[in-house]
């Protein structure tokens, strides 16, 4: 994990970054409220447990993890909205929580689930507010809008009241407004959530072009693996506030820890317990079975399955990337059985 680095290409750096929230616990009902008021009971939630990583200029990195893993908390610390409990963050040479103007002009945080445009006004008005906040000249504003319009096709929607826009139209405007000042570092938290497949692709295209044009660093969380596979070579996986993987996406499907999916059509029913001796059981639906096994042992495991079960059909495939990532999440990992192979 990173030690202090003077590498000028590093744009985002987290060094043992930690965030603990203190939450007040309250029992339900009026008495509970009264008790909480008189003698408040608090509990600490360790949302991010001292994570370290570095991103370099122009990198697009997928930041993945199950619900509640600590992704949003990390992005909020990196963009200066939350103070870390301990550890440090450095973004474009700045300490985010100081929220210096020079820092704010170089970053953006887009949260797909939160709205930043002014609800009752046309999107155009929010753009003008941002133009003023970020001190963007009229010439630069017009040039940027022209470029964004080419990819996002904003014509016809900028003059509509934001609350009358469809989700996809609003997300295009949210992104354009958030990138108007041409930030060098983008923190994108679920930017395609709830969008249809075409609109997801449009947003991806926009992020890809922006990254190429401005050599921007992009840190992206998404529950849609298509976003990640389309944009990111490297992924960071966080689970329970800890970083459990930092590396190439391709290493997950072809590296030493890679797995294969074995699909079986059985002729005779069997039990989950028996099948689990040959790999991680993903699905048992009547006679249809799906297991994952280590890639390096796929032949041996397939041969063992054919020997010990009545198999009508067997196929070997790469597991879907969602499953590969899911297996990194500690809560879903199970010990690998090997003794039944003999
Ligand atoms: N303001 C807060 N006060 C107390 N606990 C919080 C607060 N914000 C987040 N948490 C807790 O911190 C943990 C991490 O939350 P966070 O929102 O960072 O996760 P996430 O990975 O972004 O999840 P999701 O994918 O569901 O958005 C969770 O247990 C969450 O309940």
From TrEMBL:
InterPro entries listed in its UniProt record: AAA+_ATPase, ABC_transporter-like_ATP-bd, ABC_transporter_ATP-binding, P-loop_NTPase
Keyword ATP-binding: yes
Keywords, alphabetical: ATP-binding, Nucleotide-binding, Transport
GO terms assigned for molecular function: ATP binding
Any one Pfam family match given in the protein's UniProt record, by short name: ABC_tran
Domain ABC transporter: from-to ranges: 12-265
SUPFAM superfamilies: P-loop containing nucleoside triphosphate hydrolases
Protein's name in the database: ATP-binding cassette domain-containing protein
Organism: Deinococcus rubellus
């Amino acid at each position: 994990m990173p030690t202090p680095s003077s590498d000028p290409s590093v744009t985002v750096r987290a060094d043992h970054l930690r965030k603990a929230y203190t939450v007040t616990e309250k029992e339900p009902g009026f008495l509970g409220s009264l008790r909480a008021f008189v003698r408040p009971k608090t509990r600490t939630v360790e949302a991010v447990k001292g994570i370290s990583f570095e991103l370099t200029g122009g990198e697009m990195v997928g930041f993945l993890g199950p619900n509640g893993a600590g992704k949003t908390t990390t992005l909020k610390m990196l963009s200066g909205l939350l103070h870390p409990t301990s550890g440090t963050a450095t973004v474009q040479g700045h300490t985010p929580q100081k929220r210096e103007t020079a820092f704010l002009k170089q970053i953006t945080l887009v949260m797909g689930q939160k709205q930043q445009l002014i609800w009752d006004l046309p999107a155009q008005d929010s753009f003008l507010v941002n133009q003023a906040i970020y001190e963007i000249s009229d010439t630069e504003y017009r040039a940027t809008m022209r470029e964004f319009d080419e990819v996002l096709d904003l014509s016809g929607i900028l003059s509509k009241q934001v609350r009358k826009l469809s989700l996809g139209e609003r997300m295009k405007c949210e992104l354009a407004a958030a990138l108007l000042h041409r930030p060098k570092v983008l923190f994108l938290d679920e930017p395609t959530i709830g969008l249809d497949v075409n609109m997801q692709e449009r947003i991806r295209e926009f992020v890809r072009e922006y990254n190429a044009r401005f050599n921007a660093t992009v840190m992206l969380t998404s529950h849609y693996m298509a976003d990640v596979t389309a944009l990111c070579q490297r992924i960071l996986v966080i689970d329970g506030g800890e970083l459990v993987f930092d590396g190439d996406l391709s290493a997950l499907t072809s590296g030493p820890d890679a797995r294969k999916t074995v699909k079986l059509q059985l002729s005779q029913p069997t039990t989950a317990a028996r099948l689990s001796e040959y790999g991680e059981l993903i699905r048992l639906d009547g006679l249809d079975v799906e297991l994952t096994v280590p890639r390096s042992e796929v032949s041996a495991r397939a041969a063992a399955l054919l020997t010990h079960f009545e198999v009508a059909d067997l196929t070997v495939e790469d597991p879907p990337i969602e499953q590969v990532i899911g297996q990194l999440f500690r809560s879903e990992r199970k010990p690998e059985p090997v003794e039944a192979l003999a």
